Task: structure prediction
Amino acid sequence: MRSQDCSLTGYTLPAVLALIAVAATAIFYGGCAVTPEPPTDPNAGLFRDFLDGKFDGAGHPLNAVVTHASAICGNTSIAAACIGALAGGEQTGDLVASTRVRVHAHTGDVLTIEILDQDTVIAHDTLTSSRVRHLDSWFDLPVSWSSDGKPVRVRLTPAPGAQLEVDYIEVFPKRFGLVLSPGSGAIADTDHITFELPRNHKVDRITANGVDITARLQALLASGHATKTTTAYRTLIDVGVGDLLEARAAVTELELRAGEAARMQLLQVTPACHYEGDPNGKKVIVTGFQPFPADASHENVSGVAVTALDPAALHGAQVMRLVMPVEYDRAAAEVTDAIMRCAPDIVISFGQGGGAIALEEVAYNLQDTGEVAGGVPDNRGVIRAAMPIDATAAATRDTLLPIDAIEHALVAIGEAPEHSRDPGRYICNNVMFADIGAMTGRHAGFIHLPYTSQFDEAVRARFAKVVQTAIQAAVDAP
Result:
């Protein structure tokens, strides 16, 4: 039973209106007896497309080998150091042991995980208090090592004063299977691109703007104009851009399938600073994203919304639209570069989120998708776990958007936006952190749009209106 408390702090306007109705009923029947539960996370389900067919029913990667903590420590509540055999270590290559942890209380360091070859520690990591994002929530702590196929053991050592549970440790290959380099952006014909595959994989298909160019790559390999290097674990294919793409378009969407899928957007030149709308209005850069994952079967709602926007419908604004790659480094670099070159007054970035419009209040200096077993790759195959975006920057950056004004404007057109303090630690968070860092003293921030996989004309019109309304509110704000 929760304490008697009628505070509405932290609730959004639509939630407050709903709670007023609940409160009126409660008062009629005897007062404000129970505080309603807070609103649910508007970004819940952010990674739903990564959980479709790539994980088993328990959420483990399909190629994971699972060791339950109770088999090693006798219980899931770990009060003292325990050690035991770790299943799955008998495979060769770069491996990850991902420990499923829930922390209830801590005073400093929380848990140390060590991988041992007999009695020698070959990999380890310590969960510190700064890395615990939420108490009483399950998350994954990965430890990586290069395995020669020998059996290994795992040792779990809780810190004094820490109260925690460990559910299981799962072992799986470090990479999801495929990485493209150097990433999306402007690249010359004389530059080279690299396809990195697991050793036992081959290129199934490569397309450029939907045209199959697999035979072209095979011919270049046969003639020596492209090279293949095989290591103990990986196969690297290096090819010149001009050799692979003979009749190259200004923008080339390159997609590679080799068991998994990865994609990269190659530009001939950096996009010009092209604003549309009122030439005397405030300059606004508005961004969305390409579809994700790399093998996505539907469009990204943010890219759809930004593309469908009619700049002529805005007052006192001119808009530059960018649909960015879903890549950790490249998306943030692209928007930062556009800010530096094109001098906007306002930047609003949009992304594909969960079940509601989420007005993001804060960005975090952290890249981490540990809430999904094994981590989530970006569209070119890169996975990042517990890594800062900028080691020299602050831990957080607050939004520079007038989100209260945006909220009221969206409610006025029939939407129900929610405030959010957790944009995830994926590409959207990276872009928001970059936006704010580059726009000091000017309006900048991020809004998640609700997930959808169906895009009829009504849906496109709705989200174009959401983007238009958010921009107009930011333009009209002081």
User: Anything to note?
Assistant: Residues 265 and 382 are 15 Å apart (CA to CA). The chain is about 20% helix and 35% strand.
